[in-house]
Amino acid sequence: MYDCVYYKPDSLKGKTRERRRQGKAPVQYKIEDDTKINHIPLTRFLSDEKTKADLTVYLAEATINCKIGSPQLVITSASGKTRCNRDIEFEDNNHEEADTLMICLATKSSQRCPNAELVFFTPDTDVLILVIAHYDQLCKRTSISMVSGIIHIQPIWRALGREKAQALPVFHAFTGTDNVGKFSGISKTKWFQQYMKADVGLPRALLKLPVEGDLTQEVKDELEKFVCLKYCPKGVRITNIPDLRWHLFCKQLAESNKLPPTLGALEEHIKRVRLQSRVWYQTTIMQQQPFEPLQFGYYKDTDDQLLPVTTLVLPAPQAIIEMVRCQCKTNCSTLRCSCQRSNLPCTELCLCDVDGECTNDEDSNIMNDDSENDDNDYL
Asked: What is the mean pLDDT of residues 86-106?
C-alpha cells in the first residue's frame, strides 16, 4: 500500500504539503517505465500531487504484475482501487491516505484470520495511534515496525484501558496534529502524562467529539478543565480559562505565549479536532463520509487555500489592540517587536513592512504554527 492513496482536490493536507515544498513550485513528472529519476531529489520528485498519485498507481500495478502466480498473497491499494494477485474482489474506497486505509483493510483480514500475526510497517505516529484505538478489531498478535523498533500493541491497550485507548485519536488531535494546530509550549509527552492521570470523564468527553450534533456544556467544561490543569502552576487548581489566564498574568507575570488559549481560540480548535476525529473514526469504513471544513474552524484565503480560524473573539478590546503597534525597521522576528511581545500579528497600523518582509503578519503566524509532529513523542 502506498501513501498517498487518494487525493482530494480540497484537502486539509494541502497547506501541509505546500509547506513541505519549502516555497518551491511543484514540478509534475510523467510516470512511465523509462522516466529518469536518478538525479532528482525525492522531495522534489514527489512535490506535485498528480505525480505522487500517478506513482502510487504505477507501483501498485507493477507490484501485482510481478507477483502473479506467486504463492505469496499480495494486496495493493491506490487511487481508491484495491487489487491482489489472487481472484479476490475488493470494494472501492475513498480514503485519502494510507494511514486509515491500511487499518481498514487489516480489520477485514483480521475477521477472516483472527489468529494470524499482523505487522504494520510505518514511521508514522498517526498509524500507531489508530492501530491502538482499533486494536479490538485486529488480530491479537498485532505489532508495528517503526524506526525505533517493533512495538507490540496488546500491552499498550491493556495499560490504557478500553476507553482511553479508543479515545486516543481524539486526544492526539486535541493536543496537536498537522491539520489541527497545537498548544504553545507543551509537548506531546507532557500532554500524555496528563492524559494518563485523568479520570474516566476525559476520555468519555473526547469520544463525544466525533459524534454529530452540538456538544453539551458538560463536555466543553471537561475539555476546558483538562487544558487548565496542564497550564496550572504547582499547588494551584483553577479549572476555567478566564480565571487561569488572569491568575497567570497577575501572579506569575506570564508572557502571552505561556498562557492557555482564550475560550474563543479553544472553541475554534475544538471544531477542527471534531473534523479530524470524524475522519479517523471512519477508519474501518471503505467509503468515508465527507465533511465541509468551512463548518469546522477553517476558512479559505485569497489563494483558495484552507486555513484555520484562530478565533472569532478579539483577544482584547479593539481600542487596546489598536494601541499596540510596532515601529520595527527589521522583519519583526524577535521580541523587540511590540506586537510579538503582545502575541498579536502586525497590522496595517504598524510602521513595519507588513506586506513585505514582516514575519509576524497573520499568514506567517499560521505557517509557523503548522509544524510537523515529533514521531518519538509517545515512544
From this structure: 87
Written as one letter, the residue type at 191 is: W
Confidence of residue 2 (pLDDT cuts 50, 70, 90): very low
Placement of cell 489541527 in the chain: 180
Q: Are 288 and 210 in contact (CB under 8 A)?
A: no
Whole-number Å distance between alpha carbons of 27 and 30:
10
Q: How far is CA 330 from CA 317, 354, 365, in A?
A: 28, 11, 17
| DSSP structure class, residue 203 | H
Residues facing residue 119 across a β-bridge: 143
Nearest in space to 40 (alpha carbons), one of 147, 31, 58:
31
- Count helices and strands (H / E) in the chain: 16, 7
Helix 153-160 and helix 125-133, axial crossing angle in degrees, nearest 10: 60
Residues 6+ positions from 124 with CB-CB distance below 8 Å:
99, 375
* Eight-class DSSP state of 177: B
Model pLDDT for residues 145-198, shown as the tens digit of each residue:
999 899 999 999 999 999 999 999 999 999 988 788 889 889 999 999 999 999
| Per-residue pLDDT tens digits for 35-83 | 888 888 888 888 888 888 888 889 989 999 998 988 888 888 888 888 8
Can you give the pLDDT at residue 371?
46
pLDDT for 372: 43
Distance CA 174, CA 206 (A): 9
pLDDT at 318 over 80: no
Angle between helices 263-280 and 217-231 (to 10 degrees): 110
Question: Closest by alpha carbon to 149, among 130, 178, 128?
Answer: 128
- Identify the helix (H) or strand (E) that includes residue 145: strand 141-146
Is residue 149 helix, strand or coil?
A: strand
Q: Are 138 and 106 in contact (CB under 8 A)?
A: yes
